[in-house]
Each structure stands twice: as C-alpha cells, then as structure tokens.
Design goal:
It comes from Candidatus Nitrosopumilus koreensis AR1. This is ChsH2 rubredoxin-like zinc ribbon domain-containing protein. About 5% of the residues lie in helices and about 50% in strands. The protein has one helix at about 5-10; strands at about 15, 40, 45-55, 60-65, 70-75, 85-95, 95-100. It starts with a helix and ends with a strand.
Length: about 100
C-alpha cells in the first residue's frame, strides 16, 4: 500500500525501511539511505508543536512526529510550543496532504 492511498483514507502511517529501519520522509517506496523497500508503520503516533502562528481564530504550526518527521498542520485548541499532540484528522484535498492535530 502507498502512503498517499492510506492518507486519502484518513490514515496517518509512517514509511519505514524494512532493511535499515530508517524513517523515510518525504514518503517514498524506497529508502533514501540504503535503497531498501519501505513498509508503512501504523500506530497512534504522538508529536510535538515546534512553532505555530495564528490567523484570526485558526492556528497552524509545524509539528515534529516520531522525532524526525516535520509536518505543517492545523492545530485544534489552544497551542503552545513543545505541546504533545496527535493526528486528529488527515487526508488529501486536491492532491495535497492536510493534517489536523490536537
């Protein structure tokens, strides 16, 4: 299965090399380190807010997942730097990834 197919179903997975166990980001079918095949790790992953910005009543920020992946996400609730968050919603809109965390 591909990362984008899972994301389009609302599932956040993390691509990981089967051979060297390196997290592969941006998502790819092959590891950029050893060229091994990549599988998708499922789980209830936690991240932390690195920075955020507010526009009107909405907050957006950079969230680091699994100490390596950085995503831009809409932040639900009142954010603060280093706050632990989880993916609340994810998917694809017009070919682009979207993430919401809380």
């Amino acid at each position: 299965m591909s990362f984008e197919l899972e994301l389009s179903k609302g599932n956040f997975t993390i691509p990981e090399c089967i051979t060297c166990k390196k997290i592969v980001w941006p998502p790819s079918e092959f590891c950029s380190h050893c060229l091994g095949k990549v599988s998708l790790k499922e789980g209830d992953f936690q991240g932390r807010i690195i920075e955020f910005s507010r526009q009107n009543k909405e907050c957006f920020g950079i969230v680091e997942m699994e100490n390596s992946i950085k995503i831009m996400a809409k932040i639900l609730g009142e954010p603060h730097v280093d706050q632990t968050v989880k993916i609340a919603k994810c998917g694809m809109r017009e070919g682009n990834y979207f993430f919401e965390v809380n």
